[in-house]
Amino acid sequence: MWTLVRQESFKLTRKVSTWISTGFLVGVEILFAFLSRIYPQTFVPANMFESLYFSRPIIIFYMIAATATIITMEFQYGTMKQVLYRRYSRGQILVSKWLAVFFYTLYWYVMSTGIALLLKAMLFHHTLSIHQGAGDGMSIFTRGLAISAASLVSLWLLLSVVFLLANLFRNSAAAVSVGIIGYFAAYIVTQLLTILIQKWDWAKWNPVTMTLYPSMMARPGYYQSLLNMQGWQMLLGNFIYIAIFLGIGYYVFNKRNV
Amino acid sequence: MSSILSVQNLNKSFGNKHVLHDVSFDLKKGHIVGLVGPNGAGKSTLMKTMLGLFNYDSGSIKIAGETVTPQKHESLSKVGALIEYPGIYPFLTGWDHLQLFADGDHQLIHIQKIISQLNMDSYIKRKARGYSLGMKQKLGIALALVNFPELVILDEPMNGLDPQATKDLRDLIITESQRGTTFLISSHILSELQRLAQDLLIIDEGSIVQQTTMHELLASQGKQTIMLMTSNDHKARQLLKKAKFEMTPDPRVEVIAKDDNTMPEILRLLVEGGVDILDVQRLEGNLESSLLEVLKQSRIKKRLAEEEAE
C-alpha cells in the first residue's frame, strides 16, 4: 500500500503545476500579509492571520482540481490499464489515491500555516501575538488551527464527492465543476437552509449543511442557533457523508470496465 | 512442461453481446505464443480479461496456479503487459516511468539493463511529452519488461517501431524466452510473428478456432520443405529415397519436412554418405495464407453446424 502511496506522491511531485501552485499560494500569503501591514484597518492583522492570509479558499480549489485529476488523468493519458494490471487490487489502488490526496491536503495546510507564522514573525513581531484572545477562550492561533481543521474536514466532504464523480466520468470537468459549485452552494443556500431547518429539524442533516462546519468554528454562537446543531454533530455528519461518498466511489471503481 | 497461464471455459459478455465463448488454452513456460485473428475477434478483450481489467461471466483464469479476477490478482506480479497503446505520463521522463513501475530488488540494475537492450539511452531522461510514436512504444515495452516477469502479454508490440527497433525487440523477446519467460503476442504483422512465435492461438468471433504450433500450422496448410544444393544431387536423392524421406517431384533436391528433426537428420545422412552440402533453404508456408485458410474453414464448419441445428 505504501509503495502505491509513494508512487502517487511521486507523480504529484513531478508535476510542474504542484510547484507553480505552491509558489502562487506563498505569493498570495505574502501579498495579504503586506496589505494587512499597510492597511491594518481594512485587513485586520488578527483576522488575516486567522485566515492564514487568505490561503484556505485557494487550497480548496487546488485540492478539488488535484482530486479530480488524480483519477481522470489516468484515463486521459491511457495509464489506467498499466496502473491496474499489477498485483495490487483495485481497492488498494483507489485507497492509495485517497491517502495521497489526504497527505497532499496536509501538505497545503501545514505549509500555509508555516508561512503564516513566518510572515507574522517577520511583519507583525511587535504588533500581534499569536496568544492574543479571539473569544470563546481561544487564542488567534488556536482559533486559526480549529478553523483549519474544520476546513480540512469539510473540504474532504467535497473531495469525497469529487472522487465519486471522477470515478463515474473519464473527464475531470464534471468533478471539478461540482466540487466548486459545492464549495459555494452552502453559502448561497444558507438562508434557504435556515428556513428549512426551522420548519423541519431533520433537514439539518443534509450534506450541504455539513460544509458550513468551518463557518461554525469561526462563529460558533451564530451558527449553532441558526442551524440548530452542535459542532460535534457537524463533525460526525461530515465523517458519515465522507464515508458514504467514498464507499460509493469504491464500489463504482471496483465494478467499472477499463 | 508446466503452464504459466491456464484459461478454462472463459465466457465474457458486454450486456447482451456474448464476446468470448468457452475460451480454453494453456501457455507453456518459455514459449513465444502468437494470438492471431481478424479485427473484432476478441483478442484485446481476452487479454484485458486475463489481466483483471474485465469481469467475466464464467470460467477460470489462472496464472502460475493462482486465480485472476478484477478484484483479486496478486499473481499479476509475475506478469508484464502492453495493451493497445502505451500509457505515458507526459510530465514524466522515460526514466521516471521505469522508476515508478520497477518493483522488488535491484531496480536500478533492471532499469539500466532494459534501457540498454532497447537502445533508449539517448532520450530516456527527456520528458515523455516530446517522444515520437516509436519512442513511446519502446517505453511501453520497457515498462512491460522492467520487472523481468515470467509472463509477458504484448498487444501489437511492433506498432510504430523502425526496422532497427523491431530487430532489437525481436532479439530481446527471443533472449528472454530462452531464459524461461513466456510471451503472448498479438500482432497483425504476421511476417514478424511468423519469425517469432513457436505456438499459435487462432481466435475468431470470440472462440479459439485452433491452438497449434507454428510448424504444424504451416505444414498443414502447405508443404514445408527443405531445399538443398549439393555436390552430387543424383546421389543425394538416392540416399534420401533409401532413408524413406519424402521428396517433391522437383528435379532439385527438395525434402518435405515432417518436423523440426528432419533438417539435422538429412544433413547428417548426406554428410555421412559423402555428399557435400553447398546450400540449404527452408521453404515454409506463409502464416498469412495459412491463417486465412484456417479462418475460412472454421467459418464454413460453423455455418454448416448452424444449418444442421436449424
Automatic annotation (TrEMBL), chain A:
<feature type="transmembrane region" description="Helical">
    <location>
        <begin position="232"/>
        <end position="253"/>
    </location>
</feature>
<feature type="transmembrane region" description="Helical">
    <location>
        <begin position="144"/>
        <end position="166"/>
    </location>
</feature>
<keyword id="KW-1133">Transmembrane helix</keyword>
<feature type="transmembrane region" description="Helical">
    <location>
        <begin position="16"/>
        <end position="39"/>
    </location>
</feature>
<feature type="transmembrane region" description="Helical">
    <location>
        <begin position="59"/>
        <end position="77"/>
    </location>
</feature>
<protein>
    <submittedName>
        <fullName>ABC transporter permease protein</fullName>
    </submittedName>
</protein>
<feature type="transmembrane region" description="Helical">
    <location>
        <begin position="173"/>
        <end position="197"/>
    </location>
</feature>
<keyword id="KW-0812">Transmembrane</keyword>
<dbReference type="Pfam" id="PF12730">
    <property type="entry name" value="ABC2_membrane_4"/>
</dbReference>
<keyword id="KW-0472">Membrane</keyword>
<feature type="transmembrane region" description="Helical">
    <location>
        <begin position="98"/>
        <end position="124"/>
    </location>
</feature>
From TrEMBL, chain B:
<dbReference type="Pfam" id="PF00005">
    <property type="entry name" value="ABC_tran"/>
</dbReference>
<keyword id="KW-0547">Nucleotide-binding</keyword>
<dbReference type="InterPro" id="IPR003439">
    <property type="entry name" value="ABC_transporter-like_ATP-bd"/>
</dbReference>
<keyword id="KW-0067">ATP-binding</keyword>
<feature type="domain" description="ABC transporter">
    <location>
        <begin position="5"/>
        <end position="230"/>
    </location>
</feature>
<dbReference type="GO" id="GO:0005524">
    <property type="term" value="F:ATP binding"/>
</dbReference>
<dbReference type="GO" id="GO:0016887">
    <property type="term" value="F:ATP hydrolysis activity"/>
</dbReference>
<protein>
    <submittedName>
        <fullName>ABC transporter ATP-binding protein</fullName>
    </submittedName>
</protein>
<dbReference type="InterPro" id="IPR017871">
    <property type="entry name" value="ABC_transporter-like_CS"/>
</dbReference>
<comment type="similarity">
    <text>Belongs to the ABC transporter superfamily.</text>
</comment>
<dbReference type="InterPro" id="IPR027417">
    <property type="entry name" value="P-loop_NTPase"/>
</dbReference>
<keyword id="KW-0813">Transport</keyword>
<dbReference type="InterPro" id="IPR003593">
    <property type="entry name" value="AAA+_ATPase"/>
</dbReference>
